[in-house]
Amino acid sequence: MLISTVPAANSAEPLIGVYGENSMQHVLDFEKWLGRKVDVILCTVDFHKWENYRYADWLSQTVYGARGDRRLVYDVPIIIQDTSYAEAKTGSYDEHWKCLAESILSNNAGEYEIVIRPSHEMNGEWFAWGVGGSKQAMIPDFIASWQRFHGVFRGVKGGERFRFSFSTSEGASDPRPMWPGDEYVDIVGHDVYWKPKAMGGEGWEEGDAKLAWDKRVNDGYNEWGVGGMLKFAQQKGKPFQIDEWGTWGPDSAVFVQGMAEFLKANNVRSHTYWNSNSGYPGELTQREKEWPAPTKAFKAAFGAVAKP
């Protein structure tokens, strides 16, 4: 059995979460490195086959059965590979959604809120469920599908526990026209990743981490960066959270510090760090020597508080 011996999460701060590649051991490794427990664990539901999508047992029991009081946040695509919103909005996938909703509830006993991220990063076009970029003609079907999905999840016994995060991404189309309606969203979330050119691959920014952070906060890139989406959440009267974030490279300490200051200054509900090299090379637990400044900054900002 996997047991954590690190202190509980700090009080009076935003909830802290981690993505650890659907591995409890990775979560425990992150906690040991950070010196504290996390509040939430981000996990991803399969989007290749409905038979895998329908049940949360593997994630909730096999992978995270030893999570204790850490709560799972579920990435749940409204549609999966080779399906469509045009069909989803008509009810074609209701039974798949209903089965998954019941499975999630059966694996999370209690009365606490369960956060769902339907079709996260929908304003991009890199996922099967995205409606950004060249797929924007699908937005009306996406909205209708979200509304139906919401009804199915809320309609099962215990469904009032679900909380739905409108989880957008930077570096993509304006997500605001994709809003499914105030009554269908509980939380506004946003994904933020520092991507300097030096990282290669998808890197596109110049190597000034402070400038990069300032632009995100002050609409320097567009009006739907982290600052813009915070304002959008405030206009909607919804809590705001950072659903995913990651940093890269030895010179990114100021980006970490900027995030920490933003979270505390704006009463952000939670933040989840992408401690993985899958999809984005943001793993910190193995980079103490390689990235001393940002790893130190992260621990200082989010690690265990020293007792007086």
UniProtKB/TrEMBL annotation:
InterPro entries associated with the record: GH (IPR017853), GH26_dom (IPR022790), Glyco_hydro_26 (IPR000805)
Q: Which domain of life is it from?
A: Bacteria
Which residues are in the GH26 domain? 1-304
Pfam families, per this entry?
Glyco_hydro_26
- The entry's active site is E121 (proton donor), E244 (nucleophile)
User: What does the record list as GO biological process?
Assistant: substituted mannan metabolic process
Q: Which GO terms describe its molecular function?
A: mannan endo-1,4-beta-mannosidase activity
Arranged from A to Z, the UniProt key words for this protein are: Glycosidase, Hydrolase
Matching entries from SUPFAM superfamilies are given as: (Trans)glycosidases
Family the entry assigns: Belongs to the glycosyl hydrolase 26 family.
What name has this protein been given in UniProt?
GH26 domain-containing protein
Q: Which organism is it from?
A: Brevifollis gellanilyticus
